[in-house]
Every structure is written in structure tokens, then in C-alpha cells.
# Entry
Amino acid sequence: MSSRADAPIGVFDSGVGGLTVARAILDQLPGEQLRYVGDTAHGPYGPLPIAEARRHTLAVTDQLVADGVKLLVIACNTASAACLRDARERYDVPVVEVIVPAVRRAVATTRNGRIGVIGTLGTIRSRAYEDAFAAAPDVRVTSVACPRFAEFVERGNTSGRQVLGLAQSYLEPLQRADVDTLVLGCTHYPLLTGVLQIVMGDGVTLVSSAEETAKDVFRVLTELDLLRGSLAEPAHEFLATGPAEPFTRLARRFLGPELGAVLGSPARAFSLDEPQPAPPDVATGSRYGPSLSGSVNGSTPAAAATPHER
Amino acid sequence: MSSRADAPIGVFDSGVGGLTVARAILDQLPGEQLRYVGDTAHGPYGPLPIAEARRHTLAVTDQLVADGVKLLVIACNTASAACLRDARERYDVPVVEVIVPAVRRAVATTRNGRIGVIGTLGTIRSRAYEDAFAAAPDVRVTSVACPRFAEFVERGNTSGRQVLGLAQSYLEPLQRADVDTLVLGCTHYPLLTGVLQIVMGDGVTLVSSAEETAKDVFRVLTELDLLRGSLAEPAHEFLATGPAEPFTRLARRFLGPELGAVLGSPARAFSLDEPQPAPPDVATGSRYGPSLSGSVNGSTPAAAATPHER
# Structure
């Protein structure tokens, strides 16, 4: 295994959204090391002119490549729309972005050939998704900019009446277009799948560009024999071009819960030979521990009342 | 908002796998509190007889419900197969499990009506997925037990030749059956999507029971008006019926990367008015900071070499 394979994967985003991509990569590839840069000094890119998003992106990705990453992930839809081709031409490491993987998945998924795309203003205005769908002429693409979604996600406001109403108004054109597949064309949106699925209905399949991009990273590293071989515990770096706060606070939200203390039972031998678990009130020791299943009473703690029907 | 709505969501699994469900729930509902119990004293349930898995499960879920959770998630396919109906009858809180949500999604996704299911021995032997697909008589279901996958995931061995070979041999009957949709019927398997997608090919859509279950939790809490209203920072509990180690070590892997220290730049005003970013070697201050984009040189750091083609 070459030392190149042991180099980190570079992940770029305009802010914290790309952390959904970073996390999906580490889900699949827990032995890899990441160097993540969020360009919070200039992001969010959504409202910026393409040329400006491009300059900001290349400034950071130039540095990532110069620092020796083995693969570059442009984990931002707006930046991918702005400069994928520049990045491919510019760097001698493989470049993975977020648009093509999601488009490939959407084309493989749709049944009626009607696909919706939601994203930032910058992404939708760039028509980058329409371009990426060009090879599937039978597909009808309907794109809608959802400029306020990212802000709702960053506030943690992803359930309840307000975001539901917002989603209903944004997604109405997609429902009218009868799409059966919806591409989440912004790395913030995997944190909105609950509300998006409710509004679009069960018949619509959501495609996460974060998850599909991670699969692409997996595939490229496998094909190029660039999987990290080192057995040393991987170390990740998270960098922001702006102040460490509020990046840190938001990033925790995007990376998901941290474990904290775990309450466990002491290890011991245990055999289960009674048909009924004990009711909770006779439990001794750790309430959830092996001792619970061993003591017996026979009554069931909660009588059947209002079983939940779906 | 009632105090019932402020109660935690109970999440049960035989071990750490249900943490992929827990994480997906908190992605959608960052304001909710979780009480997670992994029955590591008796898990994994995969190889157990159904009756035994049922007794172990109910012993823990009785306690969770007695402790006042507002909704119970059976975040384990084997446990869901063993005792969904018991749990529905037994408890006066809504119960969400992992099989029905994934089946609903798979039926909405398939184009050729051929769906594959992979899971533990216990899950596959129970034929719980076949039962859940009963309402879709045109669907042909092919189920395959993949007993060693969970152990590979827990070792972090999810890429490279060994797991690829294992996946190729497990999935061969599903390829022969020409499935276009594959249900990941075990909460460990979302950490295998990279290798599963490579082996099954791009034309196959993977359905994660973790993600679909989280959407179901979102839907049920929304419909029943049980979303947490408290603005206090949510606190989660992670419990194991066995020793805290190795649950803790594995759980970190399943919950994904933690942030650690973030390297940021001091906040300052910055205007971008030069077309070319500086090459890395003239960067001053924070390498990725705003100062980088402000200094100008005009050369591109890496000449076009071997652009990556897909």
C-alpha cells in the first residue's frame, strides 16, 4: 500500500453542509482520514454569482490538493455546479462531486421519468442538474430553489408547522409535475427527509446527494487501489476559513449525536429460562440489566390500550 | 405542548446496530431526546430462536415503556420480526419498527417487481419480510441471510478485498433473481452501502431500514402532535444491558465521527476582487483562511495531469 493511499481525503464545502457527505464517507470507510474545510468566511454560496463561488472554491481546493490529499470531494452542490470541470482539469488527484452521483441514482430509480430537484438558488440557476440529466432525454426534470431550507436546518428547525408549511409551498410545483423521484440537491437536505417525505407522499423516492457521493468516493478509491492501508487510528481535521465558532456548534448538529457516558451492567453469566419478563417494579440492580429478565412475576406491565395503527 | 410530548423516545436494539436508526431519528428531529438500550447481555439476536429473541426484547421494552417513553422504536429487524404484534398489544404508546417502513419504500421504488432482502439468519428465517410484502402480490421477493456481515461492520472491515468477496458470494442469488431494489434488513447494513452498491451495480436501489424507520418516527410524532416542545437542550441516554465496554467503543463507530477541535480563522472583514487565488506557497496566516484568497499570484498550482474519468 503506497503512502499516497494513506493520505487523507480532502472534503470541501462552503460551510457545514458537506459534513453530511463527510459522515457518509466515514460510515462506509471508517479507516480513512478526512481533511474537511468549510469556507465559512465566504459561505453560504447559494446566493452568490457562479464566478464568485468558483473563485472561493478553487482558493481552498488548491490548498487542499497542495497539502497532499489523495482525492478531492467537492461536497457542495453550488461549488460543484460552479467548478467541477475546472477542478478536474486543475488537479492530478481524482475529483468527486455531488451532482453526477445523485443524477445517476435518480435515473435508475424513477418509474415515470419525472424527476424533481431541489437546491439553493445558485445550484438551480446554474442548471447544472439539467445538464447532468442530458444523457437521459426521456426524463423530465423539474427544479425548484428552496433558499430558506438551509437556514431552517442550521437552526435545527426541521419539524413542526413552520417548516411543514414552507416545504408545502416550495414543493407544490413538484407535486403538480407528478415527480416520483426527488433529488436533494443540497447537502443540508438529508436533515429534512422527514418533512420532505411527508409532503411529497410515500410514492416519491428521495435521493440524497450525500449518500450517493459517499458511494462514489468508495468506488473511486476501490478502483484506483487507494484505500488506506495503515492500521493506525484515523485522525480527522475539521477546518473553517471563518471563526471556529459558530462552525463548531453547527458542525456538531450535522455530525449527529455524540455518545457521552454509557450506563452498562457488569459482565456476568446469565441464563434465561422463564417465559415472562418481570414487571419493571421488581427489577433490581441495573433496570435494564440481565437481572431483570431473570426475575419473574408473570403479569404484563401495561394492559392493551390504544395500539398504534398505521 | 403536553409533558408527554417532552418525554424521550425509547429506542431498543439487541446491540449497537440500532444506533444507525437513533442517528437517523436525531438527524430529522434534533430537538428530541432519546433513551437507547442495547441488549448486549443477550445480543446479537440474529442466531437466536424467535421465542428467545421475543423474551429478551419484551424484558427491555417493558422497562422502557414503564420509564415513560412517549414512543417505542424497535430498532432491530430480528426483534421486530419476533414481537411487533406483542409490543403493539402490550403498550399504550405508539410502536414503530423497522420492517414495514422499508417494505413500503421498496414497493414504491421497484420497477421490475423483483425485490431482494438481506438480513440476519433470524430475520430471514422468520419470513417477516415476506409477510410484510403480502399486500403486493406482484412483487417477487428473494431473501438471503448474510450472517457474517454484522461482524465485519463491527470490526470496521467494510472495504477492501475480503468484504467485497463476501458480499459477492452472499449477493449472487439476488443478482441471479434480477432484483432492482435491495432492502437492507439489518441496522448494521447502512454502513455497508459502498460495497453493496458496487456488487449489485448502479441499477439497483438500496433501501435502508434505518432511514425509513426514522421517517416513520417523524410521521407518527407529527400526526399525534407529540413533537417535543421544550427548548431545553436535549439530553440522550445510551444504555447497555451488558458491560459499558465494548458497547462504548462500537457505539462511537456507529454514531459517526465526533468533531474534536476545529481550526478556524479570526473573524474579519474581507473582500474578494481578484480573479485568481494565490498558489499555496504564498499563503500566509491560516492556510485556508480569508487571507489566502486575497493574495494574488496568477499561477495555478497543479497543471492538468490525469483528470479522473468515470
